[in-house]
Amino acid sequence: MSETPSGCRVTQVDHTPPAPWSIRPDELPSPDPDASRTRLPDVGPLAAEIHVAPDGDDAGDGSPSQPFAGLTRARDAVRQLRTQGLDGPIAVTLAPGEYPVTAPLELTAVDSGTAAGPVIYRAAEPGRTVLYGGQRLTGFTPVTDPAILSRLPSEARGHVVQCDLKTQGISDFGELRVRGYGHRSPAPTLELMVDGQPQTVARWPNRGFVEARSLIDPGDPADLRPAVLEYEDPRHERWTQAKDPWLFGYFRYLWADTALPLGAIDAKNHTLTTGVPYEFGGDQGMSTAQGIIYYAFNLLEEIDEPGEYYIDRDTGVLYFYPPCDPDQATIDIGMLTTPMVTLDGASDVRLEGLTMDLGRDSGVVMRDCQHCVVCGCTVSRMAANGILIHGGEANGILSCDIHTIGRRATEVIGGDRETLTPGRHFIENCRIHGFGRIDRTYTPAIQLEGVGLRVAHNLMYDCPSSAMRIEGNDHLIEYNEVHSAVQESDDQGGMELYMNTTHRGVVFRYNKFHDLGKTGGETAVHGQAAIRLDDAISGLHLYGNLFIRCANGNFGAVQMNSGRDNVIENNMFVDCRQAISGGWNRSNNVWQWLRDGETPDNFYFNDLYLSRYPQLAGLQEEPGINHVWRNLFYQCGATASGNADFLDLRDNGSYADQDPGFVDASQGDYRLRADAPLLATGFMALPVEHMGLYADDLRPTWPVTETPQRMPDWRESG
């Protein structure tokens, strides 16, 4: 008999791993590409169609000749049809054009369809119907006020223009608040755009960060004592008269960002004092253990290059150094302070082919819904999040483009961990980029939580931290492509799980990772990986994945921080400084808690879990072993670093100069030829050609082209 960490006594089970091939026949890649792709059921003949147009009239009847003007009016017409007994498919069809949005379209249970009769809000011409939550600005004039000119950098004088927002009917200028790691609900955020691109709140330095010379006082959240830093550059002394200066940086850990007000600058002693205490974890102040890096922003005094702006919230005047002639550009700001569309308890509703553009909050928020899908849509320029699915069952995000997002591009949360009931949500064939722009950490392309969710065929790139953060059980993550991620944060992975040893049944297969990590001399302590199993994550299966140039610092492409019983097999590692790093470590806090009989919240060791995941019964048996089987290492540095006594290494192949049989490695084509000798050893060819996006009738853009941020050669970077 043995004891589980919860104290329950169970019969001893055999923890001997299987032979070095644990991939079941039904888990092998299918030669049919459609086998991994979702197809929505055909709707069939419509029972009714309601028309909406930018020049419509809500007093009309919703016919093609008398379309409604607004979605809320169309929604009410759908409700009326349902109360009259119409139960077939209903489409609300939006003509091309722009639809100003000043309040969300709110859909609830009464707006539901059925499996045979869904309700579809769709664009008549996909991509040409725009729900717009912004306001365009005009009337820019040169700055002539001597008091303002004196505060501008000399190189900017004559280039900066101003716009009186109040005269354009704008009185809500947004609010700057403390935000970042640990602050989940920031205020609706105003952003300035030019020709669709976000501009920069005036800052110094213009790129990157500066390091604090020293930490004078870490501050104390308990007694509201602010922090005091000694600065290096006298540039700080330009800001002594600034109205509302702020700092953004990493003040304790290089994976925890924070924005907080700057309270005072002491030019004599070269110190700056924060306006409020820095707070980490509720009771800790700043620390120099990993270094402190920051920049200052919201400074009229630092408008010194095109694209920078500052809003004086007292006067309502926008000051801007335009990157082009403002009279020839489209300049706008987000105005909508709520999500554009909310679904609460609805079922069998589709949003199809719509563009939801520019707001201070989120695009779509779906709560406790069933069988609702956002498909073929573009969600862009949201200062908060893109698309959220919270609770419910079998909802999806399919073939969408989600980009230029301030926080998380998506949150997909569903299922019940206590009962291991699957949520069956999915996100598939989505192009997701430019997220985590304002809050920089823990704001991924996909925040995945719960049980039984699927993430497939997505392309995720251009972000400061992780592309995916994963919590829960029995998730399938397959056929995705990730690149140009973890470019600012340290000690993280492109896809990452953290701490909970009962997060089990998660499978990573047939994903392509390339060019991940910091690309220059940025501050780092630990490193960046493609997949990170952090703080005792155990019992996961990684197979058939391709890793190219995605190990940085001390991390391998796959990094294990103290976990056990993970199986890493039949993957290809190409041109990585380290392929696999880390392994089991009994000194990790999680193992110590369990040895002490402590069971953290959301750790489950009930009979259901012990039956589903038998290895949980042996978590305290030592040593913990991770299994590295039949992988290919091509032109890598270390193959599997870590304590070899705790790694089960079998049948792996390392190729320094010899070609394993790639189609054309010189051109980045790492498919294996049919005659590759490696295949005779039992290695399974990877379905490289099926990784990432695919063409279908819904995709907003095709073909998709993008330029990865190429990683520097690790052989030359030390």
Account of the 3D structure:
By secondary structure, the protein is mostly beta strands. Strand 1 (2-3) and strand 2 form a beta hairpin. A 14-stranded parallel sheet has the order 3-4-7-28-31-34-37-40-43-46-49-53-56-59, with helices on one face. A 13-stranded parallel sheet has the order 5-8-29-32-35-38-41-44-47-50-54-57-60, with no helix packed on it. The chain is globular, with a radius of gyration of 27 Å. It contains four helices and 62 strands.
Main sheet overview:
14 strands, parallel
Structural class designation? mainly beta
Strand order, sheet with most strands: 3-4-7-28-31-34-37-40-43-46-49-53-56-59
Distance between the termini: 50 Å
Described by the principal axes of the CA atoms, the overall outline is globular
How many beta-strand runs? 62
| Percent helix | under 10%
Low-confidence stretches: 1-18
SS field, number of helical segments:
4
Q: Whole-number average pLDDT?
A: 95
Taking Cα atoms only, what radius of gyration do you get, to the nearest Å? 27 Å
Strand content: 25-35%
Q: How would you describe this structure in keywords?
A:
about 725 residues, mainly beta, 14-stranded parallel sheet, 13-stranded parallel sheet, about 5% helix, disordered N terminus
